[in-house]
Structure formats: C-alpha cells, structure tokens
Amino acid sequence: MKSNFLVMIIIALLVLSISTIAWAAVDEHGNLQIKNEYISIIVNQDKENNGRFAVDVTGGNPILTSDNGKPLIYGRPKPWTSYTTIQIDGKNYVFGGKTNKRAGQFGKYGTKVKAPYITDQNGIETVYRYGKIKVIQSLTFVKSNTTGLPDTAQIKYKIINNDQKSHKVGLRIMLDTMLGSNDGAPFRIGANSVTTDKMYTQQELPVFWQAFDQLSNPHVTAQGTVKGNQVTAPDKLYFADWGSLADGVWSFDYNPDEDFMRKGEFQLDSALALFWESNSIPPGGSKTYLTNYGLGGITIVPGLLSLGVSSPAKVVLDEQTNSFPVVAYIQNTAEITAKEVVADIELPPELTLASDESLKKKLGNLKSGSTGQVVWQVIPKEGTGQKLEYNVNVTADNTDDNSVSRSVTIIGAPKLDLSITAPKKLKVKEKVLNPNPFKIVATVKNVGASTAYDPTVSIVLPPGLELAKGEKRIKYLGYLEAKEEVEIPWQIDVVGINGELPYAVELNSINTESESKLRFLTVPKLHPVVYLKADDRDIEVGDYLSIDLKVANIKELYSFTSKLQYDIDKLEAIYVSRGTLFVDGEKLLKWQDPKIDQKQGIITIQGNLDKEKKVSDTVAKLYFKVKKAGPIKIRMKDLLLTDESGQEVNYKREGLGFKIEGGEEYD
After folding, report:
1. pLDDT at residue 663 above 70?
2. What is the CA 138 to chain-centroid distance, rounded?
3. Beta strands of 213-285 (E only): which ranges?
4. Is the pTM of this model over 0.85?
5. Rounded distance between C-alpha atoms, residue 363 and residue 412, angstroms
6. Which CATH code is given to the segment(s) 529-660?
7. CATH annotation of 301-412
8. Residue 270 burial by CB count (10 A; 0-12/13-18/19+): exposed, middle or buried?
9. Bridge partners of 636?
10. Per-residue pLDDT at 43 exceeds 70
C-alpha cells in the first residue's frame, strides 16, 4: 500500500508539471502545433500556404471556461487567411509557400530554406529566401503584459541581408483576428471603440489594444501589444475588413470610417495589418520585427455598471517607457440609461498622473447595454520592484456605484554589459601560428532589473582575420533575463596579414542601449618554409626513426616535388607515407608513390593538390632504421614548389641535422 501511495504522488506531480510545459505535435490536419495550458500556435506544413499560422485558445483564462478551444486568429482546419509580406526594393513577396486562395495570391514568392520545425526553445521557425535576403519567421509563447501569464504568441521576423550590397526592406503582418465565433467585436484602443476602417501612426499607437464581445461576461478577450519594450512598434497600424487586406499584398483598399464588411461580400470580417516601412539593411546586416498577440487581462467586477480595468502587470522603466496606460471599460447592464457616469482613479504615492490628465473622467449618459471606456496615463516615480495597488471607481446619478482594484509592479530597465576574452598576441609554434584558428569570447550579462529582448552579438573583422568554417558573424540570443549571463564564442582564422589588427564586437537589443568594444590582436610575421622535423625522443642505433617533411605558410601551393638525400651508411630508408597535405577529407589527392634509391640515398617525393591554396601541413612521413651512430644530415635537393600556372612560389628551406648516440652498429 505504501509503495502504491508513493507511485500515486509521483504521477500526480508529473501531471502537475506537464500541465505547465509547452508541448509540440502534428495535429489531425497535418499542421505543426505547439501548445501550453493557455493557447496553441498552429503552423501550416503543406506545400501550399506553407508557414502560415493561427492561434487558438486551449485553457485560456484560468477562471473562465467560456474561452476554451476558441480561435484568436482564424486557421481551421489549415491556416491560410493571415499572411506576411516582405517588401524588398519596392517588390512585394509573400512569406511562405504559394497559395491559390484569396489571401496573398497576387504576391511574389521566394524559395523555402527550412520547412516549419520545432526549435530548442519549443517555438516554431520557418525560413524562406528571396534572392540574397533570408527571412526567419519565429513563433513562440511569451507572457502577456496584462495577465502576466504565457498566454500570448510572440510573432517575430528576422530579415538577414546576405548580399554584398544594401537592400531596402519593409514588412507587413496581416492577422485575420477572430474572437471565438464573434468576428465583429470592436477593437478597443485607448478611449476609442473601433468598428470601422482606422489607421494609427506610430505616434498615436497605444501600448496595447483589446477586444471582447461583452464586458459583463466576456467569452474571449484578445489583446495585441504593439508598443513597449517587448515589441517593435510598427510605423502604421491598420484596422480594416479582411477582404481588402487579403487582396492587397502591400497597399490595400482603405476606406476610413467604412465598417468591417468583407470586400465583395456582405459579412462582418475584421482584420488588422502592422506596417514597418522600408529601411536599408547593409551587407551582412539584419533587422528584427516583433509583435505580440494573445489573451488580454481585465479585472472585472460585474454590476449594474459592470467595471473592467486593464493595465500592464509589470512596467519596465526604460528609454522607451516612462508611463503606462490604465484602461477602464464600463458597461451599463441596467434596463435604463445611466445618467452622468463618472470614472475616477485612486493612486498610491509611488504613482502619479501625467500632467495633462485628471483623476475624474466623465462619460456622460450611458445607454442600456452600451459600453464606454476611458484611459489614464500613469507615471511611476521609480522602479522599486514592489507591487503597487490602485483603484478605479465608477458612479452614476441613478444607479449603483462600482469599484475595481488592480496591481502593477514597476521594475527597472534591462542593462547589458559586454566584455571580451581573447589573446592580445598570437604565438608561433613549429613555424605556424598556434592556435589558429583562435577563439574570441564575448560575455554578455544583463546587469539590469528586467528582461532584455532579442539581443544580438556580432563581430566585425579586418582584412587578415576571417570566421572559421561554419561560424556565423551574428549570434542571436533570443532574450536575457535579469542577472543572466551568457558566453558567445567565435573561432577565427588568421589569413596572411601580420601586425596589429583591430576587430570589434557589437551588442544590440530592442530594449537596451547598443554597445561595442574595439580590441587589437598582434599577429607575428610568418615565413614560408619547407623543413624537416624528427622525433623528439632519443634515438639509438637499431631504433626506428620517423621524420616529417613539412611546409608552413606557403602561399598558392599547387605542386610539390623534392629529392631528399640521406646518409646511407647511417640510415636505411624503410618506407614513405603520404602526408595529410594530400588528403582532403575522405578524398586522396594526386600522389606519386615515392621512389627510394638505397644506393644513392635519395628519396623522390611528388604530389599535386586539387587547386592552389595557402598551406601549412605535412607533405610526407619518412621512416628509417638507424644503422650507425654519429652525426646525421638529411638535405633537400631539386626542391620545386609551384602554383597552378607552373610558376615557382616563394619559400626557404631548412634541412635536418642531428646526432645518433653510440651503440652496437646495425648490420
């Protein structure tokens, strides 16, 4: 019984732990899906509409069941109605696979680099290429700024210019929003309820917008976060009907104050589009765009005047943010018109209103069933990390009052510290630089009080230094929590230039200041040489002796020919093997079997590479048996090193001399 009881406890703990962990699978329609206990993100894996995505509610709001299983972005059974446009030098390309449906059918398309796949961070990435421009779509879970829960999809596009010239690149993300079965609910933006075509510039953007069907009993509460330290604020945000946005790949039929009736049809169908205008991306550079969409957090107290209040759960005080919005929604659920409705806010000493704000907001008369909304801009005095509570009250002349309490935590900004660990001077060992490649390590630490989003670390190298094969110039860190530290290494090759070489490491993040460090590396001068290297061990008569024929720092080597002369009275040549210079992976390069002339004491070695290149390597390995003690010399005769055109390359030669200690002579 005791063992069974323990098993039950273990199973219960596993169930509890699994419920909070995101998991990935292929759903019954063949979509790739990641899911947690709040929402799921679904990505189309088909050839058609490949990479397009949708968002559904799983468990949603923990205290409600009405939102369970409802869509936030339309995508059943396979996502296709939402799509993203990349504008490159004025041409419009739709991200992902081609479509024969209405959404994006008039766009140009690129080439798939990587089909949708699960990342190590339990997100879904899809990669497409448009000429020399690579675009990575990343979808993952993040915490909502109003609920504080991971009930939000982060939508990220990283655009990388792999060309040798700059390109002007812009981005449009179109989302086919849907609140469960309600496709006509108003978008609630600040103090406005938007039900017709509307455009906001970057200066007019709210931190977030929300949408719900009814305040007293909301089935689904959606939220888009478009401004702040978690996201990249768009240049423009449009709310319009889906049909117009589906047909227009970049520009579209925009009609201010026209309702969301789907273009060409007679059905309400709302959607939105975020625009980032074209900006130049330099060669090797990149640009990242982030926006968040998911569930919204509203603290609701039902009543004749139902009152809902929303604000960020946490506010990070940084260069972008010195205030935050408090939004109050008031719905009149009484059967009569509420007269002279007033909302007021009560703040703790640590919070104050913006200078142009007033504590009381008048809504006037509110008809039965209608909803009004007001917004206050609140300024924190400092980031203490403490949870602060405020109250919003609503009154009317002819109905009951109502009140809501909500809390907010004010924290300090992130701050990234960059340090570099690398040699100041390279050493020469056995004629070559050692090590080469060498390592440069950047250490990034978030010494601030909040998360740094999308940090990137890049290295800038001068002529003479190159990234080792397989290395990437830019390293992407995703995010860095407060006090978190990470090391970013690069393997660097030195390629033919000596002296004091400068290089730089640059650090960028969407919500921290940029930082760069300049460092210098001293590279000693190297000389092209052909030389012989013997065993380090003591050799006596009767021992076997191995000698390496090596080249170091030879430029543009293609063909190698040499005759080696040795003392036939002291050494007996046994065997000559191919050196690693004439091995390329599993491929053996052209190599003539060495000729050993025991009478003359001459060994002939000859080989060719596939193409000329700079090399430091072993040409051949020679094996001898020692016959007699005394001084021994091995000389190079008829040494010829040429490039692919047959021209002799520069080098110097170093023969080999050493002494064999006494012992019985070998017969």
Report:
1. no
2. 8
3. 221-225, 236-241, 270-281
4. no
5. 35
6. 2.60.40.680
7. 2.60.40.10
8. buried
9. 564
10. yes
Burial zone of 318 (CB within 10 Å; 0-12 exposed, 13-18 middle, 19+ buried): buried
Residues of each domain in the chain carrying CATH 2.60.40.10: 301-412, 416-523
CA–CA gap between residue 580 and residue 58 (Å, rounded): 59
| Three-state secondary structure call for residue 116 | strand
For the segment 394-409, the average pLDDT, to the nearest whole number, is 96
Burial class (CB in 10 A: 0-12, 13-18, 19+), 498: middle
Q: Give yes or no for a contact between 626 and 541, defined as CB atoms under 8 angstroms apart.
A: yes
Query: Which fold is adopted by the domain 83-295?
Result: Beta-galactosidase; Chain A, domain 5 (2.70.98)
Burial of 509 (0-12, 13-18, 19+ CB in 10 A): buried
Residue range(s) in the chain whose domain bears CATH number 2.70.98: 83-295
Helices (H), 367-489: none
Question: What are the tens digits of pLDDT across the range 197-216?
Answer: 999 999 999 999 999 888 87
CB 605 within 8 A of CB 561: yes
The edge-to-edge listing of strands for the beta sheet with 167-175 is 108-109, 91-94, 83-88, 167-175, 270-281, 236-241, 198-201
- Euclidean distance between CA atoms 70 and 81, whole angstroms: 17
Reduced DSSP (H G I as helix, E B as strand, rest coil) percent helix, strand, coil of the chain, to 5: 5, 55, 40
Under 8 Å between Cβ of 524 and 596: no
Q: Residue 294 in contact with residue 72, Cβ under 8 Å?
A: yes
Residue-level pLDDT at 181: 61
pLDDT at residue 18 in the model: 35
pLDDT of residue 61: 80
Give ∠ CA 91-239-357 in degrees, rounded to 5: 125
Q: Please tell me whether residue 203 adopts helix, strand or coil conformation.
A: helix
H-type helices in 189-318, by residue range? 242-247
Is the pLDDT confidence value at 399 over 50? yes
The architecture that CATH gives domain 416-523 is Sandwich (2.60)
* Distance of alpha carbon 613 from alpha carbon 196, whole angstroms: 66
Report the 3 state secondary structure along 582-615: HEECCEECCEEEEEEECCCCEEEEEEEEEEEEEE
Residue 148 and residue 182 in contact, taking contact as beta carbons nearer than 8 Å: no
Q: Indicate the pLDDT class of residue 4, thresholds 50, 70 and 90.
A: very low
The tokens describing 432, both together, are 């070559």
The per-residue pLDDT for range 221-250, each reduced to its tens digit, is 999 999 988 899 999 999 999 999 999 999
Rounded to whole angstroms, the Cα distance separating 338 from 303 reads 12
Phi, psi of 243 (to 5 degrees): -60, -45
Token pair belonging to 470: 């397989």
Residues of the chain with CATH 2.60.40.680: 529-660
Cα–Cα distance, 593 to 602 (Å, whole number): 14
- Smallest CA-to-CA distance from 324 within 145, 483, 179 is with 145
Antiparallel, parallel or unpaired: β 338-346 and 387-396: antiparallel
Over the Cα atoms of the chain, what is R_g?
Answer: 35
Question: Exposure pattern of 125-164 as b/e (b: 16+ CB <10 Å)?
Answer: bbbbebeebbbbbbbbbbbbbbbebbbbbbbbbbbbbeee
Read off the amino acid at residue 587.
Answer: K
